[in-house]
Amino acid sequence: MEATINTKSVLDFVYSFPDVAKRGNWVPRYDTETDEFSLTAPRLSDSARISYFSDEIAFYVTPDQKIEGLFIEYFRNNFIQHHQDLEGILSGIDPDKISDSNVEENAVVDLNQKEVDKVMPELGEIIKSSLTDRLQLSPVE
Question: Superkingdom, according to UniProt (predicted)?
Fold first, then answer.
């Protein structure tokens, strides 16, 4: 079941995303079977539900509108192709080992926190840009 999220929660989160993730020790993961990236609280609340922000970006949201994580679909096969500055996130994951014929039973891989930290500002800017586009706002310069 998809959650709904209010605009204020999105704005608050988007403009403080890197700090929120760092303070909360959010954990970066990549699912090799479904090509999904997530950056979430170490343990998501049982009540957290996914709420799509754009075609490929979603948030994990609790009923009280707390955002506990970020989720990106088609990460390697689409998102990274459009945002190549983020490629370092997947360092250490050999694409040749991610084929349907040889994915191990546990396809979710914990990613290197240092690599994710390096690109966190860029990821935050991409999310802000998506918000600007979605709301059809002009960016502030």
Answer: Bacteria
Query: What is the distance between the alpha carbons of residues 102 and 42, in angstroms, rounded to a whole number?
Result: 28
Closest by Cα among 130, 140, 139, 137 to 52: 130
What is the CB neighbour count within 10 angstroms for residue 87?
13
127, with CB counted inside 10 A (0-12, 13-18, 19+), is buried
105/33 Cα distance (integer angstroms): 10
Nearest to 126 by CA among 114, 139, 111, 109: 139
Per residue in 24-73, pLDDT (tens digit) is 999 999 998 899 999 999 999 999 999 888 888 899 999 988 999 999 99
Q: Are 120 and 86 in contact (CB under 8 A)?
A: no
The answer to whether 5 and 59 are in contact (CB under 8 A) is yes
Going from N- to C-terminal start, the domains of the chain cover 7-128
More confident residue, 96 or 78: 78
DSSP 8-state symbol, 117 = H
